[in-house]
Fold these 3 entries.
Entry 1:
Amino acid sequence: MNEQVNGKKILITGASNGIGMYLAIHVARNGGIPILVARSEGKLEVIANELKRRYGVECHWYRADLSNDDEWKDVSDQILFVHDRIDALINNAGLGVFDRFNESAWQDIDRMLEVNVKAVMRATHQLLPHFLLQKHGHIINIASQAGKMATPKSAVYSATKHAVLGFTNALRMEVQTEGVFVTSVNPGPVRTNFFNVADPSGNYAASVDRLMIDANRLARVIVDALFQPVREINLPRWMEAGSKLYNMTPATMEKLMKKQFEKK
């Protein structure tokens, strides 16, 4: 249990399923107050009511399409107006579509950039002044091992996660003396509905099924790190080791891992 979460308000994007839903559960289990954001009103309401019933905590939810910047700004303005204090932001919402770049639809490219990059920066831009004023806060950005090691059919997705990592690392240095923690989370494949959109054929998900991370376990690790000076969370560890090797010898790794990289 993370006692520092007790009584804290934690804003979680992409909270209607997968990692975001489990993040909400673990925040509530630790006595925190989840503030949930996603597109699905019905799912958010069900989750919020269940968390209130099961853990006896407050739980707030807001509908927002994070691919629409104006809408997301309006909703985040509303959240800041309603809540006098927010203690942490977990930028969890993410989108991936796996295609060769020349076969990618521009609509898919644009949505990945909007949700994976712009929405992360928008939420941070809105809440960071609040954290700096109270000299307390934690921003956790869910990136990906794809941000460290790109593979075929993920040119845009990998680019968005590279952007999140660069943004997170720079931001951490900017606020490190201001009482605000900044953490990146870099998981490998996670067993969620993500692949229903990213890989409608199911081929890639099937090929890496035995390697997938449990979303509940990942969420627990993230919540345990809240309000701790944790730079990165990397899971699974063997994949992080592979990413480090790739950064040292990219040409060799691309040759050795060619078959694995092309499983999408």
Note: Residues 3-261 form a domain with the Rossmann fold fold (CATH 3.40.50.720).
Entry 2:
Amino acid sequence: MNFKRVVKHLITTERDVRKTFSPSHLQHIAQAISASESQHSGEIRFAVESALELHPLLQAQTPRQRAIEVFSELHVWDTELNNGVLIYVLLADHAIEIVADRGIHAKVGNAYWEVLCHQIEQSFAQGQFEAGVMNSIDAVSTKLIEHFPHSGGGKNELPDTPVVIG
């Protein structure tokens, strides 16, 4: 058990999320997702979580494992073309994870998502949280446009609004 990590998670709250991603930042993120989805048939979800709950934390749950849970909870996997993408931030760890459904993942692969996560983590390390998220939306959009261009008349299968998990 990493005692330092446990303490960090115990002291990071939803208030920290609101300081990092203000309501106007979250509004910009929602607008960027909406604009992106007008260009392709994929679905993008953004979720930010302040910290892990105590039990998963004591079980040493990784940000990746939690992101996969959130991917499922938000039904990002439930799109017609299996081309949903979750951009997940675990604030206490300053970690970002991208979970892509099988349709887009098969076309893009792990390496792209890993490089993208690393770039965003660099933005976060410089305190540029909104810019990091906006860059991730642009990068995900590029791949969705390339592999799932908008065919017209598509419906918005998932909400565009960011999810804040206490």
Note: Residues 3-149+156-165 form a domain with the Diaminopimelate Epimerase; Chain A, domain 1 fold (CATH 3.10.310.50).
Entry 3:
Amino acid sequence: MNLKQELQTLNDKLDKFRRKLAAAEKRADPTIVMQFKKEIAAITKRISSVKGQQTRELSKEGSTVVGLKFNRVLTKAEQADMGKLKKSVKGLVVVHPMTALGREMGIKQVTGFAPKEF
């Protein structure tokens, strides 16, 4: 399972445990309340771990993309015919500013990274 799916699953479990905790508190059942508080703490810890892992992977990917020798902003015409551009430039990596990688790298426009000039 990839990190995104795992994070979604963990958030679903956290939501479910919080609802069950609220129901147990309403019933005034102290053993069940303690059990769900422990579960919530464990899930919260796991969620932060997965988010940290996602950040590390994204940072690693960003550093490899920035390590490519040539980069430039893509024109609207190139963006419109991305297939043709990718076929003509071997190893081209296109980064959009609205993706997680683009936000991590701090780019403001659609940028192409490649080992050779294009």
Note: The beta strands are 70-73, 93-95, 111-114.
